[in-house]
Amino acid sequence: MGEYRISEEAQKFLKDVCEAVGPPGFEDEVLRLFQAYGRRFADEVIRDNLGSLVFVKRGSRGKPRVLVAGHVDEVGFLVTSITKEGYITFTPLGGWFDQVLLAQRVVIRTRKGQVLGVITSKPPHLLTPEERQKVVTLDRMYVDVGATSEEEAKNLGIRIGDPIAPYSPFTISATGKTIMGKAFDDRLGAFVAIEALRYLRESGAEHPNTLYAAATVQEEVGLRGAQTVGWLVDHDVAIVTEVDIAGDVPGIDPRDAQAKLGKGPTIVTFDASMVPNQRLKEFAIEVAEEAKIPYQLSAIAKGGTDAGRLHLYKTGRPSIVIGVPTRHIHSHVSIVHFDDIANAVRLVAELVRRLDEERVTSFTGL
């Protein structure tokens, strides 16, 4: 295959999908962007009843069915009430560390359009000495949209049940090598899946299987999209494309997070939701080395991915996770390296090229 690079069009697409609002259960805006971008490279586009979107590319044979999946939902919030003063209370959709929330801007998506707000709480000037020593928890925070009454807030279109997402523009850092933004977990993974399909299509590379590149939904609230998309695709092997926790930040013990920015995608050897098929793992390592793609091995004691459901489909399916090292996930601003994204696309495409029926069958033999 020819050399892969992230084109200007692809970078613009990645910017658009990362800036879009799409917490779990509210992914349609993001999915429409994926559909418009990816359908040009697919032979068919299909969707399950939970909402996950799948792009199909047929290779030289119908089988095996190779599923490459990344989820498009982001950690966010849901409106739970409007106070008489016009403040918005909320509950999390996905896992948040309360300490990263205060003073951050958010977007509420309403039936009348988007409303900007800021997460805040009791002013520091009014805190007692005892309160200053305590972490403010999410249940004591609210969103201020600038309203002065409940009626004003409701007139903006805000209702209980509306989704809330971080407001964080997609930004290329001063180095030119890294990007900052929200929703990298896991629109980066879904981007890698669709770009691998595009790369195979545009390079004319043959693959002895049918490729299903999936943008799954509701991963952050229990891997729900993965559970239904498996039944849609009926996959024989799964590659989940995800972010991985970058450990090259102050205060992290190398035993807890091994990945570093710019050193290549990760091949995940363990996480809390799945121990990968060991033959598939060794195959991924061999392919990376054969194709001269930089890679890292990682082990994640906590957290899981869509692979936690996909490897349990029917009687079990060989599955693995390819990660893009990312700093500061589940916050308003994450950071990732362009090279790691590009090399993740290359690695996934090289794996797909080599996954024939004999190879996939060998992963589960004794």
What's the CATH superfamily of the largest domain, by name?
Zn peptidases
* Helix-strand sequence: HHEEEEEEEHEHEEEHEHEEHEHEEHH
CATH class of the largest domain: Alpha Beta
Percent range for β-strand residues = 25-35%
Mean pLDDT, all residues: 95
Describe this structure in words.
By secondary structure, the protein is an alpha+beta fold. The chain folds into two domains: 248 residues, Aminopeptidase; 91 residues, Peptidase M42, domain 2 (Elongation Factor Tu (Ef-tu), domain 3), CATH 2.40.30. Helices cover 28% and strands 26% of the residues. It contains ten helices and 17 strands. Strands 1, 2, 3, 10, 11, 12, 13, 14, 15, 16 and 17 form an eleven-stranded mixed sheet that branches. Strands 5-4-9-6-7-8 form a six-stranded antiparallel sheet. β10 and β11 form a beta hairpin. The longest helix is centred in the middle third of the chain and has 20 residues. The chain is globular, with a radius of gyration of 21 Å. The mean pLDDT is 95.
